[in-house]
Amino acid sequence: MKAIFLKELKLSRKGLLIWSLVILVTIGFGIVEYPMVSQNVDLIMEGMAMLPRIVVIMFGLEGIGLQTSIDYHLALFFWISLIVYFHAIITGVTVLGRDQRDRTFKFIYTKPYKRNEIIIAKVLSGIVNISILALVTWIGSIFTIYYVDGTLSSYISGELVIGTVTETIIGMFFAQILLFSIGILFAGIISTHGKALRFGFLYMIFVYALSIIIQFSRSLDFLRILSPLSYFEGLSVVNHGIDILFLIISVVVSIGFFYISIRAYKNKDLVN
User: Fold this and answer.
1) Is 244 within a domain?
2) Second label for 40, Cα 20 to 30 Å away, from 14, 90, 163, 252?
3) Beta 155-156 vs 159-160: how paired, if at all?
């Protein structure tokens, strides 16, 4: 199983590097733009006030003032988390579907390993991948705070900024795990890798749209359970901390999806 785990990490390293660079470039652009933003905060806020509320929500700027390092982190975090979440669900689909896509399943599944062991090794390699991307995001976010504040010891409202930023990344990581498990589920129950990938993209579009609708109309807050993107929203985590209920839901549902996926994939016909 160790050999399969290491092989999967090797196969995914190029993709992981590209996703990591996308995160770092996004953060880099944010840092480069900060001097302009900081000098024109009032004009930017006035412009935002003139936009329809739904547009402000779609760009992740509702409730954010841009006057503090936390505000700037949240503005970047919205886009970074979308990238990370797409990576999580794609990784879930690909880590199980790669052999079917590349027609290498005849080779790997004739090795002296149980299919169950192969699947678990693949799942573990996927978790390592999304964990690394979360770490890259955390490091980039910390660097952003240092660039804006000039220190990692700044406080806002009595809270250490670096601690608050870390909390948003922890929430993001649990959402990553959940989306990864959903990707695994698609790969396990859908006949081909291509179809599973399309379902993954459609699902992400659906939950993004749903999260926007929920935020626009708080009377629909009960629908948050259907959208992992709404579980640990950056602004909500900053203001209220990580929601323990959604934390528990994320863990329980992820474990359930992993179990269902493994059972389904063990009996899946890979010849399509």
Assistant:
1) yes
2) 163
3) antiparallel
For the chain, first and last CA: distance in Å? Answer: 26
Any domain includes 272: no
Query: Which residue type, as a one-letter code, is found at position 28?
Result: G
Domain assignment of residue 256, given as a range = 2-266
Of 81, 95, 82, 85, the residue nearest 196 (C-alpha): 95
CB–CB of 200/89 below 8 Å?
Answer: yes
Going by C-alpha positions, the residue among 82, 51, 93, 91 that lies closest to residue 187 is 93
| Residues with Cβ within 8 Å of residue 233, at least 6 apart in sequence | 211, 215
- Name the 3-class secondary structure at 63: coil
Token match 């389904």: residue?
264
Tell me whether residue 204 is in a domain.
yes
Tally the domains of the chain: 1
The span from the CA of 57 to the CA of 21, in Å, is 26
Tokens of 258: 């992993």
- Per-residue pLDDT of 168-183, as tens digits, reads 999 999 999 999 999 9
Q: What percent of the chain has pLDDT over 70?
A: 91
Q: Please provide residue 219's backbone torsions phi and psi, each rounded to the nearest 5 degrees.
A: -70, -15
69 part of a folded domain: yes
The CA distances from residue 121 to 47, 100, 203, 237, 262, in Å, are 50, 16, 25, 33, 11
pLDDT, the chain, mean: 85
**Pick from 38, 62, 42: nearest CA to 147:** 38
Could you tell me how far CA 22 lies from the centroid of its own chain?
13
Q: What is the pTM of this model?
A: 0.90
